Amino acid sequence: MKKLFGLTSLAVIAMLVLAACGGTTAPATGGGQAMEGLPDLGGRTITVAVENAYPPFNSIDEATGEAVGWDYDTVNEICKRVNCVPEYKEAAWDGIFPAMQAGEYDVLADGVTFTAERDEIVDFSVPYVVVGQVLLVRAGETRDLEAMKADADARVGTQIGTTNEIVAKETFTDKEIQSFEDFGAAVLALLSGDIDAVVVDNVSASGFMAENEGQLAIGGQITSDEELAFVFPPGSDLKAAFDAALESMKADGTLAELNKKWGLSD
What we know:
Helices cover about 35% and strands about 25% of the residues. By secondary structure, it is of the alpha/beta class. The protein has two domains: about 10-130 and about 225-260, Periplasmic binding protein-like II (D-Maltodextrin-Binding Protein, domain 2, 3-Layer(aba) Sandwich); about 135-220, D-Maltodextrin-Binding Protein, domain 2 (3-Layer(aba) Sandwich). The protein has helices at about 10-20, 70-80, 95-100, 115-120, 145-150, 165-170, 185-190, 200-210, 240-250, 255-260, and strands spanning about 45-50, 60, 65-70, 85-90, 105-115, 125, 130, 135-140, 155-160, 180, 195-200, 215-220, 225-230. Helix 6 links the parallel strand 9 and strand 10. The relative contact order is 0.20. The strands form three sheets. Strands 1, 4, 5, 6, 7 and 13 form a six-stranded mixed beta sheet that branches. It has a five-stranded mixed beta sheet with strand order 10-9-11-8-12. The chain is elongated, with a radius of gyration of 18 Å.
C-alpha cells in the first residue's frame, strides 16, 4: 500500500493513538522455540497493527467474520520461526504511523511501501514483494489510462494520505482527485458509478476484483517498481528478527508460496 505519512506533533500523536481501534479475532500463533539459526524472541508477545480493509493483505471474511490475509499468514509464520506471539490490533490508517512513532504498536503490517523519506522516521524490514500502481475501473469500461487522462469528465479516486494519492494527482494533473478514508470506500464509489477509476496497488486491485467477481477490471498500469515491507518503531530489535525470518522464508520457498497464495505474485 502506498502509504504516506509525515512528522506529527506529540499532541496529535497522543490523540491519534487514543483513536486506534480494538484488536481482531485472527488466530495468533508462535511461542515455544525459535527455528535453528534464527533469533529467539523468547515467546514474547508483539502487537501488530493492521487496517483490515486492504485485501489481500488484511481484511475481514464476510462469511466467517474472521480476519484473514497475507499479513496474518506471514506474521504467524515469522513468529513460529523466531518464537514470538502476534497480537493483532485493528487500527484506522490515519492513526497508524503516529501510533508507531509513539510506541503503541511493535509492527505495522499493511502493505507499506518503502521510501527514503519514511526510512528517516521509522525502520523497515527487508522487502517482501515489489508491486506497481494501476487504474482500477468497472468491468466493461472502454477508456484506458490515456483516455481517462484526456477525458475532462473522468472522475478518479483513491485513499487519502497514501502515495497512491500522490501518484493520482501527478497522473491526472487537471482533475480533482476524490480521496476516501479507505480503499474499500473508494471501490464502493467506483461500483456505484460515483467515480470512474481508482488508483491503487496492483496486488490490492486483484484482491478487490476477487471480492467483486466480474465487476472490476484493470484499466492501465501507472508504476511498477515499489517495494513493500514491514514497519517498526525506530531502533526496534524486531527488525533483525523479522529480516532473518523473511530471508529464511525466501530461502526455503515459504515466502514465494504465501505470495502466490494471496496473489502477490503469479
